[in-house]
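retry 2 of 3: previous attempt timed out while embedding iron/sulfur cluster. Reduced batch size to 1 and resubmitted. Inputs unchanged:
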Amino acid sequence: MGSTRRVQAARRRPPRNRGAVQARLREVERRLRDAYGRPRHHNPKDPLDDLIFVVLSRMTQEVKYLRTYRALREHLPSWDTVRDAPLGGLEEILGDAGLAPTKARQIQAILKEVEHREGTLDLSRLRAMSDDEVEKYLTSLPGVATKTARCVMLYTLDRDACPVDAHVWRIARRLGIAPETAAWSDRRGRELEERIPTGLRASLHVTLVSHGRQICLARNPRCGACTLADLCPSATATRGGSSDGS
Ligand code: SF4
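retry 2 succeeded.
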């Protein structure tokens, strides 16, 4: 193997220690920020709006949950009307998003609990809380998991959070930053997030989501068009599969 190829192979090896992982993540964040900027992925800016938006997005394609959220706001413009809507009618509006019966029940339960705690359907009070307090508050709402809570913290409260969703987990595994054979779990997601240097977490989340949707697809990743290919241990294996996503 020539020296250039040896250097290239060394760059692609998974980083082994904490310092190397952090250096790799800094480089990944810089390149993805150059490529995608700071996308918001259509998340609303108000915490309660975003919480319901994130619940709707669970296990659903982007095009469908965007359409469903729009339909919900058109048919039932205030959260009071959503809370009081007949369950069957709400399920019908949410039908496009998948898991409509579960999501309809969960959304009404969340709204009732927020009103019970706050005396109003408004989560603005979270803005003044610490990260730990916000996470504790949100994850104690009906059916709200850590990933959902951290999405709300990132998109509406400007917290430096990197919720580890399917895109983030898949790309981290391919880059050798998360264990290659381990399945995602809440705990593993938090462990991964804690390895990301502070100040980079929010940026990495939003850009990894873009990268996962456009380039590092679940099937047939477009390694030939990837800005991370020279750092990625999976690039060689997948480059032959498809370099154009077709
Ligand atoms: S090189 Fe391929 S597998 Fe690696 S991050 Fe890029 S698209 Fe994903």
